[in-house]
Specification:
The complex is a heterodimer of chains A (about 600) and B (about 290). Chain A has about 600 residues and is of the alpha/beta class. Helix content of chain A is about 50%, strand content about 15%. In chain A, the strands form 3 sheets. A 7-stranded parallel β-sheet of chain A has the order 5-6-4-7-8-3-9, with helices on both faces. In chain A, strand 5, helix 7 and strand 6 form a beta-alpha-beta unit. Chain B has 2 domains: about 80 residues; about 210 residues, no CATH class. Helices cover about 35% and strands about 35% of the residues of chain B. The longest helix of chain B has 20 residues. The radius of gyration of chain B is 28 Å and the shape is flat. Chain B starts with a helix and ends with a strand. The chains are: A alpha/beta (about 600), B alpha+beta (about 290). At the A-B interface, strand 1, strand 2, helix 1, helix 2 and helix 3 of A face helix 1, helix 2, strand 4, helix 4 and strand 5 of B. Strand 2 of chain A pairs parallel with strand 9 of chain B, so a sheet runs across the interface.
């Protein structure tokens, strides 16, 4: 503590509770005389602690300056965050600033932020939060989010807004932290629910608010019963299947805005998905919801340029590949869908590195039958004897052309280690980034990568909210089968704030399953150049997600011929594309 | 109000003197304690380079100090956390005592005559409060008020207090006259005075907020039709009113005890009929109040 600032132990504004000393009505005006500030003065007087007259006078001037700042109509947060954003490369977009201003000045802090994916809803929410905090209108804040986004929120708030929010771990945290990030699923369970309901929040932020579309769920009931002054709900898809979802969401923010459900149905619903009187509905929605759309020219993303690199396997590698594939198929047909997961892993690994296959096969051997065991052992022996790795050779040739930093993604730890070994041997500085690192270590690795190393070899597509916009080269050493994971990989570098075009290099082994995956992701659904973040909405709509890999594996197991496989993949692509069109043409938007 | 002056005064009070390294750009060597007070416990002492002009700040990599900027906000927060309670006084010698004595004697003598037996110098107490009044409802307005309350009479001062005469520091305790009004009473009176000022202002925002509240309340009642006796409805209604009901919150930001001179005279007053009586008069030159002690 600085000897000059004994008061800094209690931050400004003070944390005292807002007890009221006297309350009365003056005409129609309700007057509250607060006890808090005065209580502190009396406490100081009793202890005979007097500050110097100079500090007192300076503080009075500071009060006036702060009050004058608070009277400004624009956003204080923009100026406050300017330097931080210059450092972190955040560029606030016009639509984000407009949204924050509208929420604060017109919607009085009660809004659904329903921008289309990738337009930066989190930035908007953070901007509103910072603005309210700077103006002293908000102190106690709760951010409810799906569990997998907690750390992403933490980093976003810390890096972009300088807010060190707490993360809920124990029941004690609910009352302790002023700005708390918690999982919605945790909050709705006891003993947490009772505690959360008893706290009065100045601001409540709910991410992925479409999870509250059903009013009979525990999550909905919890959010409905929370005591809050301001509330922001973030979702890109306020309507997925039924207009009632929209009605329910608005009921949380402003009950009665759309009347009773019966009258809403009568006035605004032609059927589940088609609204009546769209103009009137739009007017009512405008009072609680802000939706920015891409075609309004809100954001211009840089280009994604895809470079497929076809790698031909050597004769020995090709032979091993076919043997492993045959082993997988025969076992898949025998075992059925229950043991699909290790087979999917094996089939994917065989396109990455034989080292990874060997490790998985070794683990699998414990559960194999006598007949299969001999075949697996022989395979394992042959795998160990393959010295060539054509993919790594191709990678070495590729990175030799790079003059900038690149992230090399692989799905497997064994492949990651091998890639690093090969690149280090070739004289490059590399870093490993994977799930075994703690949060702090990940931050540190990111820092080192930004400043020193040339290549980051990562197994983590998500990266827990860590972004690498300073880099614009991505190498997919192997391709994940699930487009969501691929999107997450690319999304680490290609997001708001990326100033350069992003080059994506895909290493594809010829005549393998990887060629089919590339056909589906690149040629059919144009995954690499699709709209950022759109896929999660599509997969959610199709109810796919984690089962995506199984769908693909089923196709591979059930069909032998290349044409047959492609026809099946075409069908799957068709489903994805029509779902995308349906989402884009959401008719409720009028 | 100059931001520049505030920043320089702040550094001066911290014992630092910024050096102008080139026109418009200053440097100050901030120690660990100062940086931690500004930026949090993890911050370390460093050379703080700042400017009040954006172009210069960007050209020299200095921190910009301008309305709303991060550095200005940290300084304001730190300064606002200080000076919660202070004290100052007005010394007696700033008043012409013979003149006061003459005036007191003249007023007390009436048609007779009066003379001073003894005289002494004392200090009366005033409470200066910095109050923030914040309007709640549709509009968020804030105003700051400096209110001075006489702790002897409990009255809010309606005239301008001579702040320019104040000098830092306290006075000998034996010279201080006990206050008759409690601090709480003084605070409540000051707050009442501020609310009175607000009520004399334009009240259209109150009407506007009430109109909006009635409209929203109607919608809410329609939504909860037939369920208005439920706890959920009550909670929602309370939330709505809490958000939209026009109100005024008054809180004290800081305060100071101001010691002002009091002149005490023990007089012998001889009336025209020749009757003598002894009385003690206390004169407050700030309020121009004379009272029998």
């Amino acid at each position: 503590m600085h000897p000059l600032f004994p008061q800094t132990t209690s931050a400004w504004p003070p944390k005292d509770t807002a007890a009221v000393l006297q309350e009365y009505c003056l005409g129609k005006l309700q007057v509250q005389i607060e006890a808090a500030g005065f209580g502190r003065i009396v406490k100081e007087l009793r202890a005979r602690r007097f500050d110097t007259w100079e500090w007192y006078q300076l503080a009075r001037r500071a009060d006036r300056l702060a009050a004058a700042q608070n009277q400004t109509q624009g956003l204080l947060a923009l100026e406050h965050l300017r330097e931080r954003w210059q450092e972190t490369g955040v560029i606030p977009y016009e639509h984000q600033i407009r949204t924050a201003e509208r929420v604060i000045h017109e919607l009085h802090g009660q809004a659904i932020l329903a921008d289309e994916v990738g337009l930066g809803k989190t930035i908007e929410a953070g901007l509103i939060l910072t603005e309210y905090m700077l103006r002293g209108l908000v102190k106690k804040v709760l951010i409810l989010t799906p569990a997998n986004l907690i750390w992403q929120w933490y980093y976003e708030l810390y890096e972009k807004f300088g807010l060190a929010a707490g993360i809920q771990r124990t029941p004690w945290d609910w009352t302790y932290a002023d700005v708390l990030i918690a999982s919605l699923d945790t909050a709705k369970r006891e003993p947490h629910a009772s505690i959360v309901k008893s706290i009065v929040y100045d601001l409540l932020i709910i991410d992925e608010a479409h999870k509250l579309k059903n009013s009979s769920t525990a999550s909905y009931r919890l959010v409905n019963s929370l005591q809050k002054k301001y509330c922001l709900m973030l979702t890109a898809t306020p309507v997925q299947n039924d207009l009632k979802e929209l009605y329910n969401l608005i009921g949380l923010i402003k009950p009665g805005q759309l009347g009773s459900y019966q009258s809403f149905k009568r006035r605004f619903m032609a059927d589940k998905r088609t609204p009546k009187n769209p103009r009137e509905l739009r007017q009512l929605l405008d009072q609680v919801m802000i939706r920015n759309r891409r075609e309004e020219g809100t954001v211009r993303f840089t280009e994604r340029i895809v470079h497929p690199i076809i790698v031909a396997l050597g004769p020995r590698e090709q032979e091993i590949y076919l043997r492993v594939s045959e082993f997988i198929k025969s076992r898949g047909r025998r075992a059925g869908p229950s043991s699909m997961l290790p087979l999917i892993t094996l089939q994917r690994e065989v396109c990455s590195s034989f080292l990874a296959v060997a490790l998985t096969l070794e683990k699998m051997m414990a559960s194999l039958a006598e007949a299969e065991l001999a075949e697996a052992a022989a395979l394992l022996k042959d795998l160990a004897e393959v010295k060539q790795n054509s993919k790594c050779d191709a990678l070495e040739r590729l990175v030799a052309q790079f003059s900038d930093k690149a992230i090399i993604f692989t799905e497997y730890r064994a492949s990651q280690e091998y890639i690093r070994y090969r690149l280090e041997r070739a004289g490059y500085r590399t870093l490993a980034f994977d799930g075994s690192l703690s949060r702090g270590q990940k931050q540190w690795v990111r820092h080192l990568f930004q400043r020193e190393a040339q290549f980051l070899v990562s197994t983590e597509s998500g990266g827990e909210g860590l972004n690498f916009q300073f880099c614009n080269l991505v190498v997919n050493f192997d391709l994940p089968w699930n487009p969501m994971r691929l999107e997450q990989r690319i999304g680490r570098v290609h997001r708001l704030g990326q100033m350069r075009d992003v080059h994506i290099y895909n290493l594809i082994t010829k005549d393998t399953v990887e060629e089919h995956i590339m056909y589906l992701l690149h040629k059919k659904i144009n995954m690499f150049e699709s709209i950022i973040g759109e896929l999660d909405a599509i997969l959610l709509h199709l109810n796919l997600g984690k089962s995506f890999e199984s769908e693909i594996m089923k196709i591979f197991l059930e069909h032998e011929e290349r044409e047959q496989i492609q026809a099946q993949l075409d069908g799957l692509a068709e489903k994805i594309l029509s779902s995308r069109d349906e989402i884009r043409a959401a008719s409720w938007e009028g | 109000m100059s931001i520049r002056q505030l920043v320089f005064d702040f550094f001066a009070l911290c014992g630092h003197r910024p050096i102008e390294v080139c026109p418009g750009v200053w440097q100050v060597k901030a120690d660990d304690g100062l940086m931690q007070a500004l930026d949090g416990w993890r911050a370390q002492g460093r050379l703080l380079q700042f400017s009040f002009q954006r172009d210069l700040a960007e050209a020299y990599g200095a921190e910009l100090i301008s309305p709303g900027s991060y550095r200005l906000n940290t300084i304001l927060r730190l300064v606002q956390g200080q000076g919660l309670l202070s004290q100052a006084h007005i010394p007696h010698h700033l008043f012409h005592e013979p003149g006061i004595r003459k005036r007191v004697l003249a007023e007390c003598a009436g048609t007779g005559r009066a003379y001073v037996l003894t005289s002494s110098a004392h200090f009366g107490q005033y409470l200066q409060l910095e109050l923030s009044a914040q309007a709640r409802g549709l509009q968020k307005k804030e105003s700051l008020h400096t209110i001075v309350v006489n702790l002897s009479s409990g009255e809010v001062l309606k005239f301008a207090f001579p702040f320019h005469l104040l000098q830092a520091g306290s006075v000998p305790t034996e010279q201080i006259r006990r206050r008759k009004c409690s601090l709480k009473q003084a605070y409540l009176k000051a707050a009442a005075h501020v609310s009175e000022l607000w009520s004399q202002d334009d009240q259209s925002w109150v009407e506007q907020a009430l109109g909006k509240m009635a409209e929203e309340e109607k919608k809410l009642r329609e939504f909860y039709q037939g369920r208005t006796s439920t706890a959920e409805f009550t909670a929602k209604l309370q939330e709505l009113r809490g958000r939209l009901h026009p109100g005024l919150s008054i809180r004290a930001l800081r305060g100071a005890i101001l010691f002002t001179p009091l002149f005490r005279y023990r007089l012998v007053v001889v009336s025209a009929s020749g009757r003598e009586r002894v009385c003690t008069v206390m004169y407050d030159p700030i309020a121009n109040l004379r009272e029998l002690d």
